[in-house]
Amino acid sequence: MAKRKKHRPYGPYEMFFKRPLGFLGALFGIIILSPLLLFTAAIIKLTMGSPVIFKQQRPGLHGKIFTMYKFRSMKDATDRNGRKLTDAERLKIIKEKGEEFVSSDEERMTWFGNFIRKFSIDELPELFNVLKGDMAFIGPRPLAVIYLPYYTEEEMHRHDVRPGLTGLAQV
Length: 171
Known about the structure:
The protein is of the alpha+beta class. It has helices spanning 12-48, 87-96, 105-108, 111-118, 126-132, and strands at 53-59, 65-71, 136-138, 164-166. Helices cover 39% and strands 12% of the residues. A two-stranded antiparallel ribbon has the order 1-2. A two-stranded parallel ribbon has the order 3-4.
């Protein structure tokens, strides 16, 4: 297996075309889609309350961790007594007692959550990640941080480029 090369600085293509075009495309997309973004946020707020945006840490370019934004599509996790759980508490209960002691993802999904996932509307806040420079339009999808320890040397190369809204796996 070949050694992993060091990070190369972005060349002229990335500096003068890809990043500026991504920035302008995201800005244009946010402006054009703002009625849909606002409508979606309002429905989520009315049906599930706050927060409207789901935030999760993901590894990005060169493995740097960034916060990825998505519209929330699920109700809060609860235990069998209806008490709200943090993600850490939920994972701990699942590990110690099993999944039957917490609300399942299927139970937590709302009708509107199903709708926005079906049409990928839940992904639209990622345009703000493109605007910030954390993501690009095209690149490997960023996986959750919890998967980092399981990456092989070859899979780590996915962090040599900026993660994207869409990539080969989605085509």
